[in-house]
Design goal:
The complex is a heterodimer. The longest helix of chain A has 30 residues, at 15-44. By secondary structure, chain A is an all-alpha fold. Helix content of chain A is 72%, strand content 2%. Helix content of chain B is 75%, strand content 0%. Chain B has a single domain, classed as ABC transporter involved in vitamin B12 uptake, BtuC (Orthogonal Bundle), CATH 1.10.3470. Chain B is mostly helical. The chains are: A mainly alpha, B mainly alpha. Chains A and B meet through α5, α11 and α13 of A and α6, α13 and α15 of B.
Chain lengths: 319, 374
């Protein structure tokens, strides 16, 4: 990697540039966080949804198209979530009713989303036109804290929503009956079944929720960018799935992983615009989080206790 | 992981394909075009004349190689979705080989670049294989991450150290290598077509994989591990080593596809569009579709990959004829995957019902004959 002159690097280490970079890191972490939080609940209940990327692509297109036609960002977000729910219903039927292999049907959903989002984009829109992006809402008082306020409390509503969901998801998983049920279903489905918990109903709920979150993530992605392009996610959905492992199936861990990815992306983009790294070297920096994730997976795999025991296993009574 | 049963028979995959095509027809109709015209153009474009057929064969080659690897991996219960990265790493190693040894005669350099492809892809498959076997890392996740790593390594190499010097001179900086040594060009089999040696190699590979799986002890062990890892362990089969072997084999097949994609291409160089899709045509994923469709049988994967290669080639003809983007076919491939994996359960249910019925009949029969004795 070629870090050219020193003065370039010093340009990066100024307060204003650093704050701007951290702030955009928080913003870029949002789609990862939304998708990964949804996936966390699913995996905790024993369902690995590998189709997240495909769902994000489809919902991203529909959200973009809605905003383009109606001008309403809220409507775009709602449509994005709806597309997620529909895809979730398909995935639930495939994996719960037909007990299809989760990993492979996820690949099917991914290809479906990849193909049809491109098809619909070329058919209905053709050349990319920009759509209005989310507006920033500064939180009173907190937003005025020097530096911190700019990094954390001067964002769009969807960013706040994503971060607010972290404690909510943690609370649902650990402090509610539903959370207890879903963890039971993910660990020992037969035991859960024997005390009257409907394994498939719990899993259907987490699948629908997870896909709705993937839909929201897709909508957030395209509206944040203010445009759409083919394969807009470029594998973000797959990374979101990996972040759940990375985060040890905990909402807080997922938050840390998402922030890491968001920050690395923000830093690379900044370095590129400042001319600190060349386009070629930026490719190497881009892969750093992926390498890190593989290493983290290897470490986490040793702590097998945290993996939901019934992950990817379909449930049949009497098994 | 659910044991992947063999999908015998032709009815289920054909049913899945028909269902997907029907949904495709509805979508084409909704988009305001005539689905029959579209599918006719697709068929003509894929299998209509010699040119179409040779294009289809060229397009089917990477699907077949990836698919053959998938047959072995999936049968050993390893879900390899790192095909994209393994294709890229095989392509990179073979490209570097050709760049450093351009003057070798064809008889030496062609086998050399193909072996380089095998090795490059094999290494990229062995990493997640070893991680799964010895550390218990989920191979789905590690292969996804290694896809990203391979693609970014390719982007880096093609933008800096391996870039065509002319691109720097001109200042255009298109991320591609120079035209690779002509000695390494894969010979064209029939003049005037694109049919090259790579297709024959892919066919031979499928045959070897079949022999490996059903005619060697090692292949038997790989299959045994997939059927029941615990039973295999008690039978003294080194399960971990089989997992590593299956993943490496699968990766090597993808890497070979990568090398053939480079040296059988019309530009005879490696080009990146920033992602892997431009170079591989998502063969790493579509090869999975072909293998599943072929019932995870290397020989059945031959017609299956020709079918999907044909669909991909024909899609461009369909796009020209009825202005429906060729991306439709990728979406339909996704549907085929979902339908095929769903239909295995249906088939098992029917089978279970049939065995229960015949058991009931036997019991009835025995009860009757028993009653007659008394």
């Amino acid at each position: 990697m070629r870090l050219s002159q020193e003065q370039d690097m010093s340009e990066f280490f100024t307060v204003s540039v650093l704050i701007a970079t951290f702030a955009s890191g928080v913003r870029l972490a949002t789609p990862y966080l939304l998708a990964a939080l949804g996936e966390t609940l699913g995996q905790r209940s024993g369902v690995l949804n590998l189709g997240v990327d495909g769902v994000m692509l489809l919902s991203s297109f529909f959200a973009y198209w809605t905003v383009l036609e109606s001008g309403s960002r809220l409507l775009g977000v709602i449509i994005g979530i709806l597309v997620g729910l529909i895809m979730g219903a398909i995935y639930a039927v495939a994996t719960l009713t037909f007990k299809a292999d989760q990993g492979i049907s996820g690949i099917g959903i991914f290809l479906f989303g990849l193909g049809f989002s491109e098809l619909l984009f070329l058919e209905q829109v053709g050349t990319p036109r920009s759509i209005p992006s989310f507006r920033k809402t500064k939180i009173p008082l907190l937003g005025d804290i020097p530096h911190i306020g700019d990094i954390l409390f001067n964002h769009t509503l969807i960013v706040y929503l994503a971060f607010a969901l972290v404690p909510v998801i943690a609370w649902v998983m650990h402090k509610t009956t539903f959370g207890l049920n879903l963890r039971a279903v993910g660990e020992t489905p037969s035991a859960a079944d024997s005390v009257g918990i409907s394994v498939n109903r719990v899993r259907a709920a987490t699948i629908l929720f997870g896909n709705a979150m993937a839909g929201l993530a897709g909508a957030a992605l395209t509206i944040q960018l203010g445009t759409f392009q083919n394969n807009i996610t470029n594998g973000m959905g797959f990374i979101a799935v990996a972040l759940v492992y990375f985060g040890g199936w905990k909402a807080s861990g997922v938050l840390a992983g998402s922030l890491l990815y968001g920050l690395v992306t923000a830093v690379i983009t900044k370095w590129k615009t400042l001319g600190i790294v060349t386009g070629a070297a930026a490719s190497l920096t881009t892969m750093a989080p992926a390498v890190l994730t593989v290493l983290a997976l290897a470490v986490i795999a040793r702590r097998t206790t945290s993996t939901p025991s019934a992950l990817t296993l379909p449930f049949t009574r009497g098994d | 992981m659910v044991l992947l049963r063999k999908f015998h028979g032709i009815i289920i995959p054909l049913g899945a394909a028909l269902a997907a095509l029907s949904i495709g027809a509805i979508i084409i109709a909704i988009l305001g075009a005539n689905p029959f015209d579209g599918y006719w153009a697709l068929l003509q474009g894929a299998f209509g004349d010699t040119d179409a057929l040779s294009d289809t064969a060229v397009r089917a080659m990477p699907l077949l190689l990836v698919g053959v690897g998938i047959c072995i991996a999936f049968r050993a219960e390893v879900i390899n979705i790192g095909g994209e990265g393994q294709i890229v790493s095989g392509a990179l190693l073979s490209t570097v080989t050709a760049l450093y040894l351009p003057t070798l005669p064809p008889l030496v350099i062609i086998p050399l670049v193909l072996i380089a492809g095998l090795v490059g892809g094999g290494i990229w498959g062995a990493i997640p294989g070893a991680l799964k076997a010895y550390l218990g890392v989920n191979e789905i996740l590690s292969t996804i991450m290694l896809n990203i790593v391979a693609i970014q390594v390719m982007n880096y190499l093609l933008r800096a150290p391996l870039i065509d010097p002319i691109e720097i001179e001109r200042g255009t900086r298109i991320p591609q290598t120079e035209r690779l040594s002509e000695n390494a060009d894969l010979p064209v089999l029939i003049d005037g077509t694109r049919l090259h040696l790579g297709i024959i190699i892919a066919l031979i590979t499928a045959l070897i994989a079949w022999v490996f799986l059903w005619r060697t002890t090692l292949g038997y062990r790989v299959r045994a591990v997939g059927h029941n890892p615990n039973a295999a362990k008690y039978a003294g089969i080194p399960v971990k080593r089989m997992t590593l072997l299956a993943m490496t084999y699968s990766g090597a097949m993808c890497g070979l596809a990568g090398a053939i994609l480079v040296f059988g291409s019309q530009s005879h160089r490696l080009i990146t569009d920033g992602s892997s899709l431009g170079f591989t045509g998502s063969a790493g994923f579509n090869g999975i579709v072909a293998a599943l469709f072929g019932g995870l049988h290397p020989l059945w994967t031959i017609p299956s990959s020709l079918l999907f290669g044909g669909l991909l080639v024909g899609a461009s003809a369909m796009q020209r004829a009825i202005q429906i983007p060729s991306a439709l076919v990728i979406g339909l491939n996704g549907l085929v995957v979902v339908f095929v994996v769903c239909s295995t359960t249906i088939r098992e249910k029917i089978q279970r019902k049939l065995t229960l019925q015949s058991e009931a009949e036997t019991i009835n029969h025995e009860a009757k004959s028993g009653a007659g004795h008394e």
